[in-house]
Design brief:
Layout lengths: L1 E3 L2 E3 L3 E3 L8 H9 L5 E2 L3 E2 H6 L2 H7 L8 E6 L3 H14 L3 E6 L4 H5 L10 H15 L5 E6 L6 H17 L3 E5 L13 H11 L3 E5 L5 H11 L3 E4 L9 H9 L10 H19 L4 H12 L6 H10 L3 H11 L16 H5 L9
Parallel strand pairs: 3-11, 4-6, 5-6, 6-7, 7-8, 8-9, 9-10, 10-11
Antiparallel strand pairs: 1-2
Helix pairs in contact: 1-11, 4-6, 6-7, 9-10, 11-12, 12-13, 13-14
């Protein structure tokens, strides 16, 4: 069991915040298939404070979506604290602070990963957020292993890390790449091992290159971290949480989801999106998920093209009947490995990864 302060999580594999992806529908489906804890898409503190219909919809929660974390990004300590209070009042069980996003426009506004280069400001944010909400809900932090590979960057990392636990934060998630590295090259799991040894009994979650259930369990075994934050590996593959839990329990890796199981997940995910966004918007919004689901289809290139062609609900249903027909004579389903395009991707939506 993983513990984030007062929040108990049944297994140590959780869904990261993913801009443009980890909305209510994705989180709910993941929970139904074994995910014990998920974090909403990262939101900007200023926009939380402005409110509005779109922000209220983005932050909306349902009873089944707990425990859930709300991730904040910004640059002003006072605004960070005020926005954290809004998220707690909205019903979020954990407040997660983003010091990890490597996107250029985010860094240019002194947010996300930039804060790793200014420890005083970063620590002020941690302290103010904890003072505002830390006696009501756990506060956690997401950070990369530094701005770059310099000694100064590493010193800043450990200064912020130590301060986080001294202030009272419940856990820190560490991504094994630097901010400058973005998503290029491997995540340095040996750094996660160093961090966990450094903090001892305090809670560390690892992040980076957890693309399969085997990766998730291997990260626990090789680094000693207390949990694994699954980001890109969970998009279009909500089964990863159940698979990792089975492996951790010493049971065999389940067979990859059949065409019928894939169809059931697709139908449920789409149903949740229609409920959240309406029948007119859902088909177009689902394309980005469909592209990733298609990687599990025996004819992945053809299935991907079919998802991209969907424009309305009628075409959605026709696509399912054509490409996810359980009576079809399909080649065997092969488990998704670690596609190079995914590993190298540096898209702006991935601020939580």
């Amino acid at each position: 069991m993983l513990r984030l302060g007062s929040v108990e999580i049944a297994t140590p594999f959780v869904q990261a915040a993913l801009s443009g992806y980890s909305d209510g529908p994705m989180r709910l489906l993941s929970r139904e298939l074994g995910c014990p804890y998920a974090i909403n898409e990262v939101v900007l503190d200023k926009l939380v404070l402005l409110g509005g219909k779109a922000m209220r919809r983005s932050l909306a929660l349902v009873e089944e979506d707990h425990p859930v974390g709300g991730q904040l990004m910004g640059s002003e300590p006072e605004q960070f604290a005020l926005a954290a209070d809004v998220l707690v009042e909205t019903g979020y069980d954990v407040i997660d602070i983003n010091f990890g996003c490597p996107v250029k426009k985010v860094l240019g506004r002194c947010r996300g990963g930039f804060l790793l280069s200014v420890p005083e400001t970063a620590i002020d944010i941690l302290r103010r957020v904890f003072d505002a909400v830390g006696r009501r809900v756990p506060v956690t932090l997401k950070m990369r292993r530094g701005l770059d590979d310099s000694e100064e960057s590493e010193r800043n990392f450990f200064t912020i890390l130590d301060a986080a636990f001294e202030i009272g934060l419940s856990a820190v998630t560490v991504h094994g790449r630097t901010v400058k590295q973005r998503y290029v090259g491997p995540s340095r799991w040996e750094f996660l091992l160093r961090v966990k040894r450094h903090v001892g009994g305090r809670t560390i979650l690892g992040s980076g290159d957890a693309f399969t259930a085997m990766d998730c369990v291997r990260m626990l075994e090789e680094t000693g971290v207390d949990g694994v934050s699954v980001a890109r590996g969970a998009i279009g593959n909500p089964w990863i949480f159940r698979e990792a839990a089975e492996l951790l329990a010493g049971r065999p890796l389940p067979e990859p989801p059949s065409i019928g199981e894939q169809r059931a997940a697709l139908e449920r995910h789409f149903e949740l999106m229609v409920a959240a966004y309406g029948p007119a918007k859902a088909p177009g919004m689902f394309r980005k998920f469909g592209v990733r689901y298609s990687e599990l289809h025996p004819l992945s290139k053809e299935a991907k093209a079919a998802f991209l062609a969907v424009r309305n609900i009628d075409e959605w249903r026709a696509m399912l009947d054509r490409w996810y027909c359980e009576d079809g004579e399909w080649p065997p389903v092969v488990r998704r490995e670690r596609p190079e395009a995914l590993i190298a991707a540096g898209a702006s939506w991935d601020c939580g990864a």
